Amino acid sequence: xxAVAPPQFAARHFRAEREADWLLLEELLDLVEKKSxxxxxxxxxxxxxxxxxxxxxxxxxxxxxxLDAAMIAYLESLCTRAYFILYGCREPWSRQLKTYFxxxxxQAVRAIxxxxxxxxxxxxxxxxxxxxxxxxxxxxxxAIIPPxxxxxxxxxxxxxxxxxxxxxxxxxxGLEVFATYLFTHNSQISILAFALGFAFGIPTFFLIAQNGxxxxxLFAAFVPHGLGIGLAGWLAIHGTTEISAIILAGAAGLHIxxxxxxxxxxxxxxxxxxxxxxxxLVMIGVILMLLVAGLLEGFGRQLITDDNAxxxxxxxxxxxxxxxFGLVGRRHHGTA
Amino acid sequence: xARRNRPPRTLNRALVTPEGVALNxxxxxxxxxxxxxxxxxxxxxxxxxxxxxxxxxxFWAIGKSYPTVFAVIWLLFFFVxxxxxxxxxxxxxxxxxxxxxxxxxxVVARDGGRLTxxxxxARNLMREIEIFLPLTFLAFGAAEGFVDRWTTVLGFAWAAIxxxxxxxxxxxxxxxxxxxxxxxxxxARRAIGEDLVRADxxxxxxxxxxxxxxxxxGQFELQRLEDVLRRDDAxxxxxxxxxxxxxxxxxDTIADRVFLDSYYRALRGELxxxxxxxxxxRDKFDDAS
Lengths: 336, 289
Fold this sequence. Notes:
- The complex is a heterodimer.
- Chain A is mainly alpha-helical.
- Chain A folds into 2 domains: about 10-90; about 95-325, no CATH class.
- Chain A has helices spanning about 10-35, 40-65, 70-85, 95-110, 115-135, 140-145, 145-150, 160-165, 175-195, 200-220, 230-260, 270-305, 305-325.
- The longest helix of chain A has about 35 residues, at about 270-305.
- In chain B, the strands form 2 sheets. Chain B has a two-stranded antiparallel sheet.
- Chain B contains 11 helices and 4 strands.
- Chain B is mainly α.
- In chain B, β1 (about 10-15) and β2 form a beta hairpin.
- At the A-B interface, α1, α2, α3, α9 and α12 of A face β2, α2, β3, α4 and α5 of B.
C-alpha cells in the first residue's frame, strides 16, 4: 500500500466521482422541463430514477461529511427539482379526460349530494318567495330584478310585449353572439358562487337565493297574463341544464364552506384541501354544462318556439344529466 | 387547549421524500408572490390588448361578410384568458405561470404528492374572489355617489380579507392554495461552484498550519470564508486575510488570496476529518473538538 492518504481524500474524491452523474441528471431535467418528457430516450428513462436516487444519496452523504456549502445547496436544489419531476408527473391529457368523464365527474357530483339537496331546496324556496312577494305587492318587482335586466318585462308591461319576449328572436345581435355572451356571463356567475363558498358558504346562499327570487318575480309578471306555461317552456329548454349547473356550482362552493367550518376529525387545512379538489372537479363540468346551456339558450330557444317542443328538449336534457350523475362510474372504486 | 403542530415562523419547510431524505423547501414570500402576480397581470393585459387589435384588424380586412364571428371569438378568448390562463400555465411540467417562472417559483402540492389538475383549477378559480371581487367593489365605489360610499368601503374591507389572505398565515397560503392543498415554493437553480479544494499544484499546498491555528474557527466561519473566496472581491479578500492573520498571530508575506486558499483548504480538511469522527464544530464558540 502507498503512504497515508492526504487529509482531503474523502471530500475531493466524493465530488470528482459523482459530478458527471449530477450534470447528466441536470441535463435530463432540463430536457423534461423545457421540451417534453417524450424527448427522453429509453436509456434516459432508465437513467432518470437511478440518477435521482444516486444524487439524493450523495446529498445525504454530503450533509454529513462535507462542509462545501455551495455543493450542498446545489445538490439540494437538484434533488428538489428531480423529486417534483419524478413524483409530480401527471397522466397524459387524453387519459385524464377519459377518467374525468368515465367516473371522476359523476363521482364528485355524488360526493356533494347533501349540499346539492340544500342548494336545490333553497333555490326552489326562493322562487316561491320571489313569486309571492311580487304577487302580494308589485313594488317588489323592481327591488328584486334590476330594471336593466328586466328589459321592459315588468309589472306594467302589456301581454303583447311579454309574449314577444318569449317567442321572438332578440332584436340586436346575431344568435351566436347572444349564446356566447350568455355562456361567459353565466360561467362567471357560477365561478363566483363557487369561490364565495370560501367565506363558509354564506355568500353562496345569498347568490343562489337572489337568482331564485329573480325567477319567481319573473313568473309573477308573466302568470297574470296567462303566459306562465310559456315562460316555463322558455326557461325549460335551457334552464334544466343551466339551473342544474348553477345549483351544482353553489353546492360545490357550499361543500368547501362546510369543510372549512366543520372539518370533522381532520385538520381544517386537510379537510379544505380535499373538499376544494372535489369541488373543482364538479366545477369543470359546470362550465361544460353552461356551454351546452348557452347553445340551447342562444340557438335552441330562438329556433324552437313551440312550448311542447321546448319542454321536450328541456326534459330530455334533465333526464340525461340525472342519469349521468346518478348512474355513471358507480362500479369504479378508488380516487377520481 | 394548546394548538398542536404550529408551523414554524420561518419560510423553510421540510419535505421527506419516499426515500427518507428530508429536502428543504423554501416558501415564496408574500412580496415575491405579489410581484409574480403583477407580472402575470401585465402579460394578461398586454395579450388582451394585442388580441383586441388583431381582431379589429381582421374585422376591417375580411370581416365584412361575417360580422359576428369576431365578437364571438373575442368574447370566448377573453373568458378563457381571464379564467384559464393561470390554470393552463400551471398544468405544465414547470407548474408555473410566466410571472412565477421569471421569479423562479413553482406550485407544489402541500403533501409532496402529485399536483393534480383539480388542485390547479381549484386554486385558480378562487382568484374570482381574491382579485375580481375587490376590483368590483373598487369600480362600484368609483361609479356611485356619497350614499353608497360606506357600502363600498365595507364591501372592499370584506373583499380585502381574501386579497391579503397570504399575510395572515405562516404558510403564505392564498385562499386558493388553502382549498387546493398547494403552496408556492422557490425553485431557484444553484450553480455547483468551483471545487475550492481541488489539488491543482498551486502554491497553496506549500503553506502549513499548526493544529492550534486550525482549531480557531468552525463550520460557520469556514462557510463565510467560502463565500468570500467564491465572490473573489479584492477588498474583502484583503480585509478577511488581515482579520485571519491577526487572529492566528501570523505575519507572512504571501499574497492574500494564496493565504486564504491554503487556509481554507487546511481548515476544511481538518473540520471534515473531525466530522467523519462525528464531531461537528459549528462555529468558533463551539468547543466540540
